[in-house]
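Continuing from the previous page of notes. For each protein in this section, the sequence appears first, followed by its structure tokens. Read the first protein now.
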Amino acid sequence: MISYIIPTLWKSKNIFKTIEGFKSIDDSSTELIIIDNAQKGFKNTDDNIRYISPTRNYYVNPSWQLGINLSSNNNICLVNDDIIFDIKRFHNFVLDNNAEGITFHHENRIKKDNKKWELIYNNSPHRRPAGGGQLLYFKKENYPGLPPNMKFWFGDDIIYFYNTLVKEIKFSFIKGMAITGDQSVTVTQDNIVPQNYQEHFSPDTLEYYKKMHTLGLNCNTVFPMEIKMAWKYGDYNTKLEFERLIDDKING
């Protein structure tokens, strides 16, 4: 019983591999929600696939919000349209192991699946794994909602940090699972992302800070990813850790 949500502009053919893999899942209550932001049309005869074609490009974060609003299940999985993974095996593994939160992890960058998969706690509540939004599984009851004016960035950060810091959910990754493909091919194309959203402090950055503030969280948007952090108000130990990392980067 999982609702998979994929916003797409059909820039990558890998989405069709995910669709075919989804059709092999033996679970009548699962569903795949495709948000067609290019309005290209999609012929579908599978009752478990829901095809949504907005009148304009909603972009990724509002598309996630739309898909979650329309979803029928409490288990939500946001999937990039350009990754390749064994969705049937993933589906069965997640449900069999009663996972509460799963995200993409750098250990998933392997060429093929291992025979054994393991659910590993990532032990990183204050730092979202780089690329985590490519595959993000969580419970709908633990979804904080995303700002309507936040188009491209930080949606996965808000979901992740709300789960790990506010709801105290232990997010894991699946060791031995391969996630390959183009990985973020759409957002790296200049004709897709407007120039003002390519700046370090984009319009999404302000929306991110505002939303995190309402959730009782402090955050930073400093890159590289190992010093991109969030913490609860009053968690001065974590804030000091962050400041030491920044100082190390500045002073070498």
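Done with the first. The second protein uses the same format. Note its length before scrolling.
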Amino acid sequence: MGFFDGLRRNKKAAATVSEESKKEAEKSDSKDVSVDDSSTEKKEAQADTEQKTEPAGEESNSEGENPEEEDSEEGVDDYDPAYEVDESGFKVTPIKSYSEKKPVQHVVGSTKIISIINQKGGVGKSTTAINLSAALGEMGKQVLLVDLDPQGNTTSGLGVDKSQVTQCVYNALLEGVPLEEIIIPDVCDGLDLVPATINLAGAEVELVSEMARENRLKDAVGAMRGKYDYIFVDCPPSLGLLTVNALVAADKLIIPIQTEFYALEGVTKLLESMKRVKSRLNSQLDIFGILLTMYDGRTTLSRQVAAEVRNYFGAKVFETIIPRTVKLSESPSYGMPITQYDPTGKGAIAYTNLAKEVIERG
């Protein structure tokens, strides 16, 4: 009997436990339902707020939609078909033939052939050749710039890729090719270029055995008289046959002088060479002007050299002084003259003033 009594007690206890577990389960279900109801209400409230705010968001997107497209449209307006700019910002001048040159808008008078010369390197010959020519071109003059330096700095400084040049001044000197077949027109407003490549490096050796070797450039450039107001020749930093050709071909000389001590020593040798050429080969040769370059007014040396040059050459020295500026050094690396690269800077103003002086001197 005691055994069965124990079973009954266990059965009642089990029934009691099951009833209690059912009650607890019902309570938990009711709690879950209330939680679900509250979360559902929250979700519905969030959905209502999102529906209310969606129109404002759409309006803001429509107002500021595709900002990149707007930027690209603005960039199209800045595009200049006269030249292209590569990834590094270098101006690439397209190589055209002389027949594609823009028509001249004025009557060209007598042509002045001016060689920019100094056998000392680094005094600003190529910088002056590029920027003075460009400044005159922007003033409505027709200018031809002949690069007679085998380094070809003037050619690359105007954005011309020398690897794409098929004929250069070498072909005119050694092969008698007319300049019309070599000229790259409209590298800037009113400015044409006779380019130079590394082929010119061997010209001095090859010219030694040629007849009338000193007159080769004179004959080539002389055919262009009457077509340009000014023809500038950028000379190499030497006193070899190429420089002699430039002296014979020129009517006048512009001599850039860096405002440093060693620049004065080089001018003495240059003047001796000029006198020899004038007495034997070109009796009309004379100095058009002395140009002070790389001037730094903060240094005593620059002021002293400038004063000595003015005392020696007198009125032949240009009133305009070319200052030493970073922008003038940077502009060739972008293939632009300073009047395009930094038109409001000190360098551009100086070369514009120099161009006015050149015009005034006739």
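What the second structure shows: The first strand starts at residue 84 and ends at 85. The beta strands are 84-85, 91-92, 112-116, 143-147, 184-188, 191-194, 230-234, 252-258, 286-295, 317-323. We return to this in next week's lecture.
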